[in-house]
């Protein structure tokens, strides 16, 4: 089997745990080279008892390294931008001092393209055009990632996403047994992620559930904070059989494939394996 280098591009530490951890572990176990690239160190993430900025950035870098080890990554790279939060701030003393959401796309894409070229990457993952749930840094990952792939002539680009149809059904079902906080807007998810009809890859990752759970556990600072329970904390508490079932598939969109494409291998369009 041909060995490929697969680069997973994310905005913040812990994004990989939620969206692509199973795929990363699966590819690493198959002998492929997996590289995790983070645009920022997540300096503006919510974390109880931890000062924002440089201190939180140092902690989240360490958590990202632990997650990368759990997933079998060969390399972890930080692009050096700062976390924009849900609105941009002036530069600070961490990283390059440039919030990723307002970074020059050509400059950022050049950084990423240099890495793709160095690694001779066969595959790059980005986010869907909505940036998942619309975080400014996630939207920038989409823009920068596609531009970098063009500059580096990377053969395949997959958009990491979630099956929106399944997500909305799950939220409706959960509302019968779980009281969402008042600020939670379930209707906002009607425009988040990708509708099922657009999804081209449904990657089975039940066999990688331990690695995925370990990746989530590595980001301990993000399990709490804010006014409501965090997603990582809720998912990590699931019993193992339910964790495998609910998180046993990861979804991607590859533009340019025919409607109705249903692939299970993230490298299928490179290897011909459908």
From TrEMBL:
Segments traversing the membrane: none
Gene3D superfamilies (UniProt xref): LmbE-like
Keywords noted in UniProt: Zinc
This protein's record includes keyword Zinc: yes
Pfam families documented for this protein: PIG-L
InterPro entries: GlcNAc_PI_deacetylase-related, LmbE-like_dom_sf
Domain of life where this protein originates: Bacteria
Keyword presence, Zinc: yes
Name the record gives this protein: PIG-L family deacetylase
Source species: Streptomyces gamaensis
């Amino acid at each position: 089997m041909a060995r490929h280098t697969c680069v997973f591009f994310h905005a913040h530490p812990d994004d990989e745990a939620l969206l692509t951890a199973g795929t990363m572990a699966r590819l690493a176990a198959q002998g492929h080279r997996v590289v995790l690239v983070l645009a920022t160190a997540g300096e503006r993430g919510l974390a109880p008892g931890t000062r924002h900025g440089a201190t939180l950035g140092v902690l989240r870098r360490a958590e990202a390294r632990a997650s990368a080890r759990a997933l079998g990554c060969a390399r972890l790279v930080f692009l050096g931008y700062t976390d924009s939060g849900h609105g941009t701030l002036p530069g600070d003393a961490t990283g390059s001092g440039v919030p990723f959401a307002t970074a020059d796309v050509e400059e950022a894409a050049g950084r990423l393209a240099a890495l793709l070229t160095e690694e001779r990457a066969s595959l790059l993952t980005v986010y869907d055009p909505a940036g998942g749930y619309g975080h400014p840094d996630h939207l920038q990952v989409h823009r920068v990632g596609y531009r970098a792939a063009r500059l580096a002539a990377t053969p395949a680009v997959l958009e990491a996403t979630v099956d929106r149809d399944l997500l909305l059904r799950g939220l409706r079902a959960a509302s019968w047994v779980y009281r969402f906080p008042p600020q939670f807007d379930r209707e906002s998810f009607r425009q988040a992620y990708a509708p099922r009809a657009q999804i081209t890859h449904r990657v089975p990752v039940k066999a990688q559930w331990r690695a995925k759970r370990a990746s989530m556990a590595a980001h301990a600072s993000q399990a709490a904070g804010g006014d409501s329970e965090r997603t990582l904390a809720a998912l990590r508490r699931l019993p193992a059989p339910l964790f495998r079932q609910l998180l046993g598939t990861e979804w991607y969109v590859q533009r340019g494939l025919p409607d109705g494409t249903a692939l299970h291998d993230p490298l299928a369009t490179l290897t011909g394996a459908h």
